[in-house]
Amino acid sequence: MTPTATERRNRTVVLLTGGTSGIGRAAARQLAARNVTVLITGRRRAKGEAALSEIQDAHPSGEGAFYRTDFAEQSDVRRLARDVQADFDRLDVLLNNAGTGQGERTLTNDGLELTFVVNFVAPFLLTNLLVPRLRESTPARVLSTVTVAQHDKAYDMREGDLSNLDAVATGESFELEQAYVNSKLALLLFTYELADRLAGTGVTAASVNPGLIGTTDITRNAPLGGTKVSHWIAALLARIAPLGPIETEATAGEMLVHHAMDQELPDGEAVYFDRWEQADPEPRATNQTLRDRLWTFTADLTGLTETGAMGKA
Description:
Elements: H1 5-10, E1 13-16, H2 22-33, E2 37-42, H3 45-58, E3 64-68, H4 74-87, E4 93-96, H5 114-136, E5 140-145, H6 165-170, H7 176-197, E6 203-209, H8 217-221, H9 226-240, H10 249-261, E7 271-274, E8 277-278, H11 288-302
Parallel strand pairs: 1-2, 1-4, 2-3, 4-5, 5-6, 6-7
Antiparallel strand pairs: 7-8
């Protein structure tokens, strides 16, 4: 049945970055099943249009859109924010899920390390640019996928080191696991600072570690060795029977949707979910000095001054 104009206006709108593969694609399908208007992003147009077609074939009454976006390019992120706000007069959930992991040091056109940019700088910029529309759509939510936790052996957030942000941003002494952990620790810190800055606005913030999936970009780009083999094994086990921190793409997608749509979140205080349950974050996530320093540093990288959540609430 074709939805009426009123039904379209009343539908929840979710922007899901990285929705063309993996847990993002699984989450997009599940959001569509809830009659949510699903907006997905990806770098490859053919892949994105295929994902959107798959969603629409499964849910003919559903609505959605694909935006080709390369998160390595700040101009693409800015265009995405402009296009979404031009196309939709509401945005209920921003789900920062796009991510990558590079096997070797790769620099963007801005001279910044690619993993740090895609996993953290781009979500920082996109979120701030979309905060005005989120505030107009309250209650609204920002949920970010951090994909590492204190218990992960290879990607332990306690091993993150953001003491030299210039070195992290440019990839000096690049090492795969360290770069990935640093980018996700930064995203976690951002989530806590964002929640604080948006206190009282009706926009809440949370982050989630969906567990070990085994089929992510970081696995594909990792050099052949222990890290890649361990993820291959995890992926195989997940297909047979999810166990412990191991999830299938489908169950991890369901997890993202649950935290994005069903969980109650406190105002002005970020929440960290370790898979399905709320948990204590890496202790540095609540360190105000580090949060302020990271925010100021990234605002300078992106040229943000008076937009989104730049000012303290």
